[in-house]
Amino acid sequence: MNEGVGVAYRPEFESYLTELSSWVDAFEIISENYLNDIESEELDILLKLKPLLAHSVSLSIGSTTLPKDKKLDKFNKLIKKCNLDSISDHLSFSEIEDIQINNFINLPFTEEMLDIVCQNIQYVQNKTEKKFLFENIVYFLSWPQNDYSEIEFISKLVKKADCGILLDISNLYINSENNKYCPYNFIDHLPKDFVGYYHVSGFDKEGDILVDSHDKNVDPEVWKLVEYSLRKTSGNVLIIERDNNSTNKEELHSEISIAKDIWNKTKNYKVMSKL
Ligand SMILES: [Fe+2]
């Protein structure tokens, strides 16, 4: 996998795609946009421009049924075409008995759920022969039957399933603010060598609650947490997520510049700390 800063590709970037490509090291695509259209012209264009990472929204690794072979066959075609090192999806369930819920429901952090998610991830990894990375999601309720905290559950899961983490640093910040805990402490306890890559995005405020709207510039407090996370963990690409037709070229360029400055600063730190 390449190293550096990238953006999650959205169709609204198409009008300045070549210019955007010159600012970044990679694009992240949404797998499901191409699973039924592997010959997509858009995918071919993106592939010619930059290395791709693929993020998914439909594997539902918290469901009690295994991901479908038919879907995984399509993933394998995408992996081959895009030369992917890994695939990723959310630490959630989003499907019940073939009905897709258009939302990511956070999981109960129980021993039973640990076994279910582990089994699903191992099944995906066996079928695709690629590392699976799960993304920490924003949650607005905690299940009363939890056996573990989120960080305990994540730490156990990566080791048990031998998978990786897509660390969404903004989601971590939002959860820490909404649930009153220290995000830096969370990073300190994360299995640092299991982080594959990172997401960062802007958030919105609804009353006292932060929500992952992806439609604003990244908050300065989140950039501070990005810098800390990059110093402490192993991920090799930082992807900026910007959705909802909310950006213009100049704003996105500015966000990429901030991300690159932090990336270069922490990269030098990592090299020096190994000397
Ligand atoms: Fe994300």
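Residues 135, 168, 199, 241 surround fe (ii) ion (CB under 6 Å).
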